[in-house]
Each structure stands twice: as structure tokens, then as C-alpha cells.
Amino acid sequence: MKNLNIKIIFQMMGFLLIFNGLFMLISAGVSYYYKDGATEGIFFAGIITIMAGLISRFTTKNFKKRINKQEGYIIVTLGWVFMSLSGSLPYLFSEAIPSFTNAFFETMSGYTTTGASILNDIESMPQGILFWRSTTHWIGGMGIIVLTIAVLPLLGIGGMQLFAAEAPGPSADKLHPRITDTAKRLYLIYLGLTVAEAVLLKLAGMSIFDAANHAMSTLSTGGFSTKNASVAFWNDKPIIHYIITIFMIIAGTNFVLTYFAFRGKLNNVFKDEEFRAYILNIIGISVIVALIIYFKADVSNLATETQLIDHPMVYGRLESAFRHAFFQVASVITTTGFVSADFTVWTHFLTILFFILMFFGASAGSTSGGIKFVRHIIMIKNGILEFKRSMHPSAIIPVWYNGKTVSQDIVFNIMAFVILYLIVFALGSLVFGLLGLDFITAIGGSASSLGNVGPAFGQLSPVNNYDSLPSLGKWWSAFLMLLGRLELFTVLILFTPYFWKTGKF
Hints:
By secondary structure, the protein is an all-alpha fold. The chain has helices spanning about 5-35, 40-60, 70-85, 90-95, 100-110, 125-140, 145-150, 160-165, 180-205, 210-220, 240-250, 255-260, 265-270, 275-295, 305-310, 315-335, 345-355, 375-390, 410-435, 440-450, 470-485, 490, 495-500; strands at about 400, 405.
């Protein structure tokens, strides 16, 4: 603790606040363009945030330009908290969300790309506020800290320690030896895909405002929509569903593989075990869901009577079943949380299936939450090998992944993560139950918050929202969102005595 570099922590908090404030000013510009009445509130929130950041920077000017692991973990966790606290100001100052608890919940849900909302009438919100809401998704999508380390050379600070703390999976593949160059390449891909989706959605029939907001929410696997009915608002435009589905799948793919795909190295993509498992699961589960919807579920809400009469081939039962199955499976697995229909009424079997999918997660190195496929793969492989080890206790039988052996340390780390994830899920459910939530709502809210999914079950189903939670429930849900987004260890390690007692971490 005595060697903790406090000044560099405040330097980084200051930089993040300035960064956050600048994006608020962009949202204020959007508000001014639409004359929505929220311009002044968003603008002053941005100015105050920038001023707070400047004060934090200037009062800690003489700092050692070195970050060790201990400071890296603190900066990552506090970064998300400070961003969420300051990010609540546009809601409060514009009075779009006058309650601090609700404003903080909405902001944390945005930055953690969970997509859970307390808003009962989204379409009545000022456009500037909706744009800010989607912006919090976009900022959080690839990680505030990863974006920060792209500009750390301006401060003369190396960012490897921060990248290790923020890395969204058990391994952080690099595109380039220098971590700052890696971050820049990742964000160029991120920005390019966001623009591409926005253009396609505009051409498919969305307004430019809706297209920009949904593109930011999709690439961040967030799920905030500008419509009360989410993407179900465009059920009469199947092409919009397909565009969003494809980009959700891209967003759930390891961005390193996406980079290789852009470079024409498709072999690197298709030989990746996690990518194959990810795609095959989406396709296979979507087929199962589509068949059950087609034969068992009520699909009358998936296409209107006029659409069925005028376009029987396009809006028929089979197409509707496949489209909504494909959309919802991709949405839940990638933890995006967009809704094209209420999947909780598609038979009890599918309700249980979608609950299980909340524990999948997409790929490591993507913007999604959840456990991630690579962990599931290694856990399953190690479990199978235990049968061989029981027959040959003296044999050394390693786990193989992508043609390489996985060290036992990584296997143990993954096992610890999964066990801890399930323990936190159980505790999360118990706390929700203690606060008065029924069984279905409690386990659904815990799984969804921890997995950064958004819609859940019971009182938190896709046709409802999180406004019904008691105040303590909203704070608990926000804490679970933070834990899930930073993959447990980054946050929980701060609560261990060892972390603070160690001089050099």
C-alpha cells in the first residue's frame, strides 16, 4: 500500500472525466439540433465534468509515469465508477431522469453494455438524452480503459498493465507488438463497423437518428433502443432484423479475428476453435428455437395480418419463426439484449433455454459479457480428460486448444472464474429474493445483470423493465453489472486484504 501511486490514479480519473465530458458536449450538439429542450442540462453536465477532470489533472501534475498491477486494477474499477457517476449528470441536469438512483442505474447499464433500463416511455425522452444513452454503450463497448491506452503515449505512460486488467477474456491476443497500436487498430475496426451498420440501417428504412443509435448499441452489444418496443418496432421490416443480427454476431466475435478477416486472413478465422463453436451454436440453437416456435409457439405477434396477406412468402410463419429465433438467440448469446418479440412466452422449454444462454457469452476479445465460449470449451475439454486421468493417474494429459497446450495455471484460472461466477450468481439471486423479488425474477435478474444481457424473466421480462426494482435492488443490479463487465476478479480483488497489504503487487 505504501508504494501506491495515488497521483497517477487521479491523473487517469481526470483524463477519463475530460473524455466523458467531451462526449456529453457532442450529445448537447445533437440536442440543440433537434431542439428537444435538454441542451442546457447536457451542456452544463459536460462542462462540469470537464472542469472536474482538469482539476484532477492539474492538482496531481508531478506524478510518476508508471503503472503497476495494483494501480491498474484500481484505475480500471474506479474508472467505470467515475464514468458512471459523471455520466449520470446529463440525466439529472436535464431532469429526464430526476432520481439519482435511476440515473446511476441507467448510466451503469449503459457503460457496462447491459441494456437494462428503468425508462417507461423511451420515445418521450429528448433526442439528446437518447443519443447520450447510446453513447454510454459505445464508450463502454470496447472498454473505457482500452480506449484510454490508445492515447497514453501523450502522457508518456505505458498501458500494458491496464490492458491486462481490462482484457475481456482469458487471453489477450495482440494485433501489434505495441499495446497502444493494438488499441488504435481495434477502435478503427469498431468505428468502421459502427458507421457501416448505421448506413445499412438507414438504407433499410430507419431514420438517421435511429440508425446511429442502434448501430452504437449493436457494436457495443448493449441493447438500448430509441423505441419502447425495441427492435420489435420494425417487425414490418425484416431486413432491419437481419442487418442487426449479423452485426450482433460480428460484435460478439473476437475483434482480433475480425481484424484478420479484414486483412483477408480468413484461414485464421475459421481455424479458431472458439469462433467455430460460437457460430455453430448460434446456428444450431436458432434452428431448434425456430422449429419450436413454428410448431408450438404463438407467432401471431411476430407479423401483422396485413403483412401476412400482402407478403405471404416473406412474412409467413416459417420466415417469422426463423428470423425471430435467429435474432433472439444472437441477441442473448452476444448479451446485446435487443428484443424483437417476447421470448418468455415461447413455451416453457424455450424460456429455460434462453435462461441457460445467458451464461454462454460470446467470444473472448469481443464486446460481449458472459462467461465466453473459450472458457466453456476448455472446461469441457478438461472435464473429458478427467476420465482419462482417472484411468491413468500417472499420465500427464494436457488440454489442447487451437493446436497448442493450455497451461495448468490457465485451466485453474478458468475453473476458478466459472465457479466464482456461479457463486456470485447465486448470491445475486439470494439478495434479490431478500429484497422481495419472486424466484423467477430473482434468478433472471441476477443472471441478466451479471451477464450484461438486459432483458430477463418475470417482472424483468422483455415487455417490462427494471423500474419495478426497489432502490436497493437497482444498486445491487448495478454492482452485478460492474462485476460482470470487468470479469469478477478485477473488482473483487479490491476487497481482499492481500491486495492492500502488498507493497509491490
